[in-house]
Design goal:
- The longest helix has 29 residues.
- Helix 3 packs across helix 6.
- By secondary structure, the chain is mostly helical.
- The protein has a domain of 88 residues.
- It is built from eight helices and no strands.
């Protein structure tokens, strides 16, 4: 009998013996990434004290007002309109509303936030007027989270959908192997 020589294609690569360890590393990185997605980043302390928080919030409100290109007078009028505040209603005995916001009070809230912290209910009106999420971002980021836009939410939904598709395909393969 003749000895037959195997013809090996010179373009054929040799088996990478380190592949299993590389695959394990990739799988471990994926697992860590999934944990980060589920649990989020670790929380860090946002500021040293409550006075710093007042300053950060006032800065966010100023940024929202500037980006909306509103004057402080327009903000005062908008806040009073949002809460339907008038001087006449505030003078009535029923106490159906508080005194209207004045430009002087808004200036104090924004320029001396540690001495005059802005009441939280004003954030509703400011958000409505400026259509900005800057003030809300201060609260959200303090907890280690981020505000997601509509487009980002749709991308997350697509990512979840792809995860479910991968899971379904795994189950299909398992069921086919069991036949």
């Amino acid at each position: 009998m003749s000895i037959r020589r195997e013809k090996i294609d010179p373009n054929q690569r040799e088996f990478d013996w380190e592949f299993p360890s590389k695959l394990e590393m990739v799988l471990e990185e994926r697992r860590l990434l999934q944990e980060k997605v589920i649990y989020g980043p670790p929380k860090t302390r946002f500021t040293e004290n409550e006075f710093d928080l007042c300053v950060v919030l006032a800065a966010a409100i100023k940024k929202a007002i500037n980006e909306a290109e509103l004057s402080r007078d327009q903000v005062v009028d908008g806040v009073n309109a949002y809460f339907s505040r008038t001087a006449e209603d505030a003078k009535k005995d029923e106490g159906i509303c508080r005194n209207p916001l004045s430009i002087h009070m808004l200036n104090n809230y924004l320029s001396k936030p540690a001495e005059n912290p802005i009441p939280a209910y004003y954030l509703f009106a400011i958000h409505h007027l400026t259509e900005s999420l800057e003030p809300a971002r201060v609260f959200v980021e303090a907890e280690g989270a981020k505000i997601a836009t509509g487009g980002e939410i749709r991308q997350m939904a697509l990512g979840k959908l792809e995860e479910h598709i991968v899971e379904i395909n795994k189950l299909k393969k398992e069921l086919k192997c069991r036949k």
